[in-house]
């Protein structure tokens, strides 16, 4: 690998991981600045402290950590000096964390997980991986478009790894704001308003039902026409579900919704069993290959939705992420010109 490419990878990696690790450490004590805290914090001692809290005994933790109990006690005393508070209290069966100790354990897991990710990234770098893109996307994007787009991209860029996490649109926005993901892909919602966006794909929502359902004879319909029938909802902060709830409120109706599920595939299973009807993207319905179900086009304006790529600042993305965005938006441009 060229030296400048290696240097760019390490710089991108450090920029991405540093805020996460620093944020976890900063919250442990408001009395210390984050950089001062990081300089004084010994990660090995932090790992041993977690081991003590998990085992409930300094002696057992020392045995598992392969060092003397007295040496471990000394290191915990030094950690308490750095924190400026007592972290452990003794009881009849061993030790347990104080309130501050419990807070430290919670944040320590995040810090140590970040270090482990760093180790894994550097290991990948030594084996030829030149970059990584952390992507958070809605179920709609994952079910319809991303599988084929990711397959094309990774085939052309085998040295770039894509870490994909699926969640709701609101969680996508949160992940990008918190720098847990460089990029997010989802439909529009209030939470993404402050993020920069690029067009990705357009989806059409349809009403899915058994072939024997009374509405299955219709070619098109408005969602309001379905309110007399049992519905299958999506649990959580789904923007589609929020839209359906809003439509029902505007009609001064309540959704006849007995069941909520976590995924579009689960929704199809419920509909197939006659539990109700449900709204989902046409592409997802087709991808799931539900032959015994029927989809009717919705005429509502909100049934045609844009999926966008979101970032805090596209200009400051890592080189692999910028290349990834360029490839995805190229797909949208070619589709628009077709």
Attribute tags:
eight-stranded mixed β-sheet, Arc Repressor Mutant, subunit A, D-Maltodextrin-Binding Protein, domain 2, 338 residues, 3 domains
Portion in beta strands: 15-25%
Mean pLDDT: 83
For this structure, the CATH topology of the largest domain is Arc Repressor Mutant, subunit A
Spell out the CATH superfamily of the largest domain.
Winged helix-like DNA-binding domain superfamily/Winged helix DNA-binding domain
Query: Helix proportion of residues, in percent?
Result: 40-55%
- Number of domains as seen in the coordinates: 3
- Structural class comes to alpha/beta
Cα separation of the termini: 38 Å
Describe this structure in words.
The protein has 338 residues and is α/β, with parallel strands linked by helices. It folds into three domains: 3-126, Arc Repressor Mutant, subunit A (Orthogonal Bundle); 131-201 and 306-337, Periplasmic binding protein-like II (D-Maltodextrin-Binding Protein, domain 2), CATH 3.40.190.10; 203-303, Periplasmic binding protein-like II (D-Maltodextrin-Binding Protein, domain 2). It contains 13 helices and twelve strands. The strands form three sheets. Strands 3, 4, 5, 6, 7, 10, 11 and 12 form an eight-stranded mixed beta sheet that branches. Strand 1 (88-91) and strand 2 (94-97) form a beta hairpin. 31% of the residues are buried.
């Amino acid at each position: 690998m060229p030296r400048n490419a290696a240097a760019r990878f390490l710089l991108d990696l450090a920029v991405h991981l540093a805020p996460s690790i620093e944020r976890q450490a900063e919250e442990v004590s408001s009395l210390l600045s984050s950089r001062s805290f990081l300089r004084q914090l010994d990660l090995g001692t932090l790992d041993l402290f977690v081991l003590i809290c998990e085992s409930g005994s300094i002696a057992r933790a020392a045995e598992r950590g392969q060092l003397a109990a007295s040496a471990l006690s000394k290191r915990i005393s030094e950690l308490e000096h750095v924190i400026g508070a007592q972290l452990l209290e003794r009881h009849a069966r061993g030790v347990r964390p104080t309130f501050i100790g419990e807070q430290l354990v919670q944040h320590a897991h995040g810090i140590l997980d970040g270090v482990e990710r760093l180790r894994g990234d550097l290991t990948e770098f030594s084996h030829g991986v030149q970059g990584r893109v952390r992507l958070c996307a809605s179920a709609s994007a994952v079910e319809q478009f991303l599988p084929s787009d990711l397959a094309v991209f990774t085939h052309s860029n085998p040295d770039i790894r894509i870490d994909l996490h699926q969640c709701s649109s609101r969680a996508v926005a949160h992940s990008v704001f918190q720098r847990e993901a460089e990029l997010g892909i989802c439909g529009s919602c209030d939470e993404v308003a402050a993020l920069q966006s690029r067009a990705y794909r357009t989806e059409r929502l349809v009403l899915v039902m058994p072939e024997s359902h009374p509405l299955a004879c219709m070619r098109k319909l408005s969602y309001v026409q379905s309110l007399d029938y049992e519905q299958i909802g999506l649990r959580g902060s789904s923007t589609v579900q929020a839209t359906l709830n809003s439509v029902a409120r505007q009609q001064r109706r309540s959704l006849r919704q007995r069941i909520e599920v976590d995924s579009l595939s689960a929704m199809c299973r419920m509909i197939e069993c006659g539990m109700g009807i449900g709204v989902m993207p046409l592409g997802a319905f087709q991808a799931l290959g539900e032959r015994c179900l029927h989809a009717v086009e919705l005429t509502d304006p909100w049934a045609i939705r844009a999926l966008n790529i979101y970032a805090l600042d596209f200009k400051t993305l890592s080189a692999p992420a910028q290349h990834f965005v360029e490839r995805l938006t190229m797909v949208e441009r070619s589709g628009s010109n077709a």
